[in-house]
């Protein structure tokens, strides 16, 4: 059985809910986890890393803008050469915004594309460089309902998520034969976060009925995909509460 403690896992977009749950999940199985958020959130990252380290795991946070090519290149090089060989990379930033089409400025459209699609490309490219050396590894991209259909008011977000899904498909077809597992996860529903609680109280009230996604349950699905036998890999997996409409 593979000794996960000899490898590192990079989680881009290690936010307070899903990203943190993913970081803790992979740390609990022995990985040296490297959660990443924008520099302004470094205090939250350090708190997450301290929690993992205090519980017997290994973690180091990185304040990086995933849209910055040089920063991403530097991040991957540092992790690979000073921490452990990179075996898992999860791209999980949030970029969800609502704007009617006539109110969507070029700045908003470009920024959302940079966060959800361009940053995914940079992350996937750098991950592939290191994983191809070992013909092994997992590269996972977090999608959303918007990855499948463009709802009213989400032109920027849907466009970017469609692009990310296409990127994942292309990479899977290119890298799968190299032994690298590329998966795209569609998170179709509200997640148990402070944002949902504060802004969508009616939806959050469904929590008691199991009507919103639990971050820990999402993380379980990512771990399941990562540990699949290569004879039966999943490329796309959609997750939703039992009462969520398709």
Automatic annotation (TrEMBL):
Pfam families: adh_short. Coiled coil: none annotated. InterPro entries: NAD(P)-bd_dom_sf (IPR036291), SDR_fam (IPR002347). This is SDR family oxidoreductase. It comes from SAR86 cluster bacterium.
């Amino acid at each position: 059985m593979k000794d996960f403690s000899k490898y590192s896992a990079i989680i881009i977009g290690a936010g307070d809910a899903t990203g943190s749950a993913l970081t803790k999940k992979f740390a609990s199985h022995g990985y040296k986890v490297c959660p990443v958020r924008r520099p302004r959130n470094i205090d939250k990252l350090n708190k997450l890393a301290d929690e993992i380290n205090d519980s017997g795991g290994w973690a180091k946070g990185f304040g990086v803008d995933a849209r910055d090519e040089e920063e991403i290149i530097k991040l991957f090089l540092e992790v690979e050469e000073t921490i452990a060989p990179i075996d898992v990379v999860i791209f999980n930033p949030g970029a969800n915004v609502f704007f009617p089409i006539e109110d969507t400025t070029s700045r908003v459209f470009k920024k959302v594309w940079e966060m959800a699609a361009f940053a995914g490309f940079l992350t996937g490219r750098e991950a592939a460089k290191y994983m191809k050396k070992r013909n092994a590894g997992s590269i996972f991209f977090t999608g959303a309902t918007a990855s499948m259909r463009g709802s009213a008011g989400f032109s920027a977000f849907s466009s970017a998520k469609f692009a990310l899904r296409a990127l994942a498909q292309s990479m899977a077809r290119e890298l799968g034969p190299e032994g690298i597992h590329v998966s795209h996860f569609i998170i179709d529903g509200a997640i148990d976060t402070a944002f949902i609680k504060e802004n969508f109280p009616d939806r959050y009230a469904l929590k008691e009925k199991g009507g919103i996604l639990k971050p820990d349950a999402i993380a379980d699905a990512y771990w399941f995909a990562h540990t699949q036998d290569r004879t039966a890999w999943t490329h796309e997996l959609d997750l939703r509460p039992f009462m969520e409409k398709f």
